[in-house]
Amino acid sequence: MEVLRNEFIIVALYTDDKTRLPEQEWITSKDGRVKNTVGKKNQDFQITRFNSNALPLYAIVSSDGKDLTSSYYTYDPSPEKFMNWLKEGTR
């Protein structure tokens, strides 16, 4: 997909990474639970930032963190639908 290579910087947020974080990087989420692994911290970020824990979840954001689409994209086997959604983010 040329559009992905040429018009986007792809970032993966691993929410299943069980690597334990140094204690100074632990966070306490809004529900009061301590997040002490890379995956749990990333999952908390995804839920807080995008209001979703769907996997996979695709979001198009600017370098300053602003949403560039009106919606997020979750799994759908249709390449055409995905490409249409990507085009919304390049307008």
Kindly, what is the distance between the CA atoms of the first and last residues, rounded to a whole number of angstroms? 18 Å
Strand content: 5-15%
How much helix is in the residues?
A: 25-40%
Radius of gyration: 15 Å
Major sheet details:
2 strands, antiparallel
- What is the helix/strand order? HEEHEEH
Number of distinct helices? 3
Query: Uncertain runs with pLDDT below 50, 5 residues or more?
Result: none
The average pLDDT is 92
* Sheet with the most strands: spatial strand order: 1-2
Number of strands: 4
Structural class: alpha+beta
The best one-word shape is: elongated
List the main descriptive attributes of the protein structure presented here.
91 residues; alpha+beta; two-stranded antiparallel ribbon; two-stranded antiparallel sheet; 3 helices
List the helices and strands and how they pair.
Blueprint: H1 2-7, E1 27-28, E2 34-35, H2 38-50, E3 57-58, E4 73-74, H3 79-89
Antiparallel strand pairs: 1-2, 3-4
Please tell me about this protein's structure.
By secondary structure, this protein is α+β, with helices and mostly antiparallel strands. Helix content is 33%, strand content 9%. Strand 1 and strand 2 form a beta hairpin. It is elongated. The chain starts with a helix and ends with a helix. The mean pLDDT is 92.
In short:
The protein has 91 residues and is of the alpha+beta class. The protein has helices at residues 2-7, 38-50, 79-89; strands at residues 27-28, 34-35, 57-58, 73-74. A two-stranded antiparallel sheet has the order 1-2.
